[in-house]
Amino acid sequence: MGSSRTRAWFSGRGLVLDAPTITFADARIVHPIQRGVIVDVPGTARMLDRLLGHHMPRRARPLIVITTPVLHGPAYREQARTVVQVLRPRAVLTVPTARAVALAADADLTRPLLVVDIGAHLSEVVLLVDGAVVDARSTALGTGDLVGVDASEELSEAIIAMVTSMLRQDRTALTATALKRGALLAGGGTLRPDLAPRLVAALQAPLTAVRAPHTAALRGAAGLLTDLFVSSAGVVGGWSGRCGRGRTMAVVGCG
Fold this sequence. Notes:
This protein is an alpha/beta fold. 33% of the residues lie in helices and 27% in strands.
């Protein structure tokens, strides 16, 4: 459920939804999520029902995992849980998008890792240590704002400023260690050929683009969900379409 696109990944089926994040009211197009914020909870729920309701097996009570922006707090996560109730979930989990991206990239999480996630209208820089979020910055800018000759420069400068702020305020040197190792680049910004060179030159650090960036968070969260079932319920093997008896798994991307 991003500001621009809503994507969903089902166990055993992969990507089942990649559609504009829009709903309708009085014959008008409404954008229920703006800059990563759910501004219309009922409208978002209607959108999910319209886009995903018919994908749900009859009588299914899916386990849903939602990827969420790191700095969006408990109130946002509660809103996200509320809107997916229209899908009749058995349970709802949330996972930070940056962690899900790192899992999709099969990154070594025993070492500090910097994730730069450039979305359509929200971008984040996140420091992961042992797989957990220890610091993060965000800006309400993204690839959807790249209009005009100086647009890429404005976005890259915002990202550089976030990294610089983290470096200055980190007394542990973990951010510097992660940057020296190289940052993981995710989101739609990965596909912008003008952004990565600017960031590499300014940060004096390598950047590694995650594969298939638009679905990376979904894939990572799906893998995490599978691992949870393997460890807690004894489920073995690959995707089966169901998790245990009568249990469907779904991943919905937010932010």
